[in-house]
Structures are given as structure tokens and as C-alpha cells.
Amino acid sequence: MRLDKFISNNTNYSRKQTKKLIDLKKVTINDFLVIDGSIKINLEKDVIKINDQIISKKSFVYIALNKPKGYVCSNSNIEGKSVLELILENHKNLHTIGRLDKDTTGLIILTNDGSFTHFIKSPKNEIEKEYQVWLEKPFEKKMLEKLNQDIYLDGKKIKKFKIKNIDQNKLNIILYEGKYHHIKRIFKIVNNPVVKLNRIRINKLSLNNLNLELGKYKYIEIKDILDI
Ligand code: URA
Questions:
Q1: Of the given ranges (18-22, 87-91, 131-135), which has the lowest mean pLDDT?
Q2: Which end of the chain is more exposed for a tag (fewer CB within 10 A), N or C?
Q3: How much is the pTM?
């Protein structure tokens, strides 16, 4: 990893501030003065110091929460109670990976690891998110046929999704990307509004195996979500 990236990732200094610190000769690797922020460092062996203080790798947290209704996934008080209020410990930069609507329940991951958030959210990584959907009316074959055609949201063709376990007005849907009101807008196309939505899985991480009551959470690890 580049030295400047390591410093900006693990301190409150931006890349620009890091460059300034290097120009001011405040940064050392193994007690040798650094003159170029692009130098590659070895995270296992190298000791990085700023003003003689060791910079250690930040420890990231990953939390699986069973989100209850009535909570929003942002930290703006205007929109209502935030899921962040349900986490009793303090973690700087804690945020949700994507968002569930205020009236949606189920699995949401919180972390302070921005690059992990980016990885999970990026449509190109096609991370599966599975939801249980309850519809106003029974889901009919002709609706499925319509939804199997190309669908555009916000003027862009959305990724294909999977629908399974159809049982009258109940089914499961698997998405590979997440747009605002994604599922609600999909079912509006076939005039069958969503009445209830519950997310049950993000890739390997399944609500079933977590044994979490609504509003409760558990600390997890990346390997619980991805095969690593
Ligand atoms: N799609 C929606 O419409 N709402 C959610 O909360 C999640 C996916």
C-alpha cells in the first residue's frame, strides 16, 4: 500500500494534509525520513510515525443489525430515529452499507470501513441481497413475464434480478444492486404495490443464522459475509 493512502486511511489527515506533513519532514518509515508519499510500505513490518507518534492500522468493526420498522439508515434527525441509535458502543465513522427504507425491516450491515462499504455496494461486484416481499395482490405469471423484460429506473437499465418462492402474494427477490425504492418501484410497474419488505440475506450472511431479534445486533467479521 502507498504510504500516503495508509496515512489518510488510518488518521484524520487527508491526502493533501499528508503531503504537507511529508514536505515538512514530519513522517518517517522505520525512523528514516520520507520525501515521497507514493512510496510503498509493508503493513506487516514497517513502522510509520508522524511527529514521532506511531500510526497503527485502524481496527474496523462490522455489525449485523436486524432493523425494526420506523428507523432510518441515515444520521439525519430530520428524517426520524436512526439505526445508529440502536448501536450502544461508539465507533467513529460508523455508517450503514446502503439503506433500507424506514418501513423496511431486516438485515443491515454497519461498519466504519469505507472501502468495504464501497465493495459491497458496487454493482460490478454483484453482491446478492435477498428480500421477502409481501404484495397487495397475488403475483401472476403475466407480471413475471413483464418483469423479465428490460426495466429502466431513473432512465437506466437495471440489472437482472431473481424472483423465487412465489406463494400467492408473497415471494423472494434477489437484487445485485440497490437503487432508491428499488423493489417498490419494480412492483409498481406491474401494478402490484409492495405492502411489506424484509431483507433476509446479504451474500453469505443470512438473518436466519444470526438469531437476532428486531433491533438487536451482533459483531461479525468479513468472512461471515464474503468467501475470503
Ligand atoms: N427496495 C425498496 O424499495 N426498499 C428497501 O428498503 C430496499 C429495497
A1: 87-91
A2: C
A3: 0.80
